[in-house]
């Protein structure tokens, strides 16, 4: 029996990394984005779709017949409030509602550490359900997505898994990412675990590799079957040498979970001066 997985934001960083890693015999991927994507290669079991997550009808059509939805779409950095509200919050609601109407009863939401960014690192090993303390409009959007996921589980019985992702890149880019890094291979392992977990209900968990320096809990992810295999420490000597020594855990960007997103220099007034990034499509 063929398993069908729909991915929103498939042309983005994580979507691009996951596309080859989620390929399996007996699995079909529906890759959805407004940005251009590579066409299906010979023998690749994918369907490339152009679709906007705020368009409920388009998402319902894209999800019909899917077993699960992996929701990666949205702005990944701080943006104007109107843009975060339209794309990251309203768009997530549309994705959940479209999945419900289409009968796709499991949704994995790409959350973020920025939903809890103003929590101090000194609090120890932050648990999976750390209360929201967003550091930006972007972080508020991710906290709102978790709330929407809770609603769709409690009201409609959907399985919704919210992953507070750290930093998913082929290699960590700086000393902070030695703590927050999620390797692409571990990201795929985590997604596979979340797709396979029997009746998980609503969960909030951290998306991070088993880094020697990690700040975040892996309890909930492991309970759902995640077995991370990577550790950023292999990159530590080069990164620490490049930055001139070990970072001070009591100084920015290492003292708060959100790192540089908590910096007062991230001036939202200037963001509000930008023209809107996009307008809502008509239903």
TrEMBL record:
Q: Where is the NAD-dependent epimerase/dehydratase domain?
A: 5-180
Q: Which PROSITE patterns match?
A: ADH_SHORT
For region Disordered, the annotated ranges are 242-283
Cite the record's Basic and acidic residues compositional bias ranges.
267-283
GO terms (molecular function) for this protein are: oxidoreductase activity
SUPFAM superfamilies noted in UniProt: NAD(P)-binding Rossmann-fold domains (SSF51735)
- InterPro entries per UniProt: Epimerase_deHydtase, NAD(P)-bd_dom_sf, Sc_DH/Rdtase_CS
Q: Which UniProt keywords apply?
A: NAD, Oxidoreductase
Name the Pfam families on file. Epimerase (PF01370)
Signal peptide positions on this chain: none
Family membership: Belongs to the NAD(P)-dependent epimerase/dehydratase family.
Q: What protein does this entry describe?
A: NADP-dependent aldehyde dehydrogenase
Q: Where is the organism placed in the taxonomic lineage, from the top?
A: Bacteria, Bacillati, Actinomycetota, Actinomycetes, Streptosporangiales
């Amino acid at each position: 029996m063929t398993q069908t997985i729909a991915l929103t934001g498939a042309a983005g960083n994580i979507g691009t990394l996951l596309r080859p890693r989620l390929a399996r015999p007996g699995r079909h991927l529906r890759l959805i984005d407004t940005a251009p994507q590579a066409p299906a290669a010979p023998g690749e079991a994918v369907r490339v779709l152009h679709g906007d997550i705020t368009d409920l009808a388009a998402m319902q059509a894209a999800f019909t017949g899917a077993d699960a939805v992996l929701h990666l779409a949205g702005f990944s950095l701080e943006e104007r409030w109107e843009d975060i509200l339209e794309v990251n919050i309203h768009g997530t609601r549309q994705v959940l509602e479209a999945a419900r109407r289409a009968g796709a009863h499991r949704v994995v939401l790409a959350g973020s550490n920025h939903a809890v960014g103003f929590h101090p690192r000194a609090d120890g090993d932050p648990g999976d359900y750390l209360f929201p303390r967003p550091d930006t409009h972007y972080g508020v959007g991710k906290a709102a997505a978790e709330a929407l996921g809770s609603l769709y589980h409690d009201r409609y019985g959907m399985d919704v898994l919210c992953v507070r992702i750290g930093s998913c890149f082929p290699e960590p880019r700086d000393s902070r990412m030695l703590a927050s890094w999620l390797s692409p291979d571990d990201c795929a392992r985590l997604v596979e675990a979340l797709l396979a977990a029997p009746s998980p209900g609503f969960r909030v968990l951290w998306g991070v590799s088993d880094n020697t320096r990690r700040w975040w809990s892996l309890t909930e992810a492991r309970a759902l079957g995640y077995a991370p295999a990577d550790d950023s420490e292999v990159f530590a000597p080069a990164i620490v040498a490049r930055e001139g020594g070990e970072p001070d855990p009591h100084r920015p960007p290492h003292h708060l979970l959100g790192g540089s997103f908590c910096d007062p220099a991230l001036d939202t007034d200037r963001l509000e001066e930008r023209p809107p990034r996009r307008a809502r499509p008509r239903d």
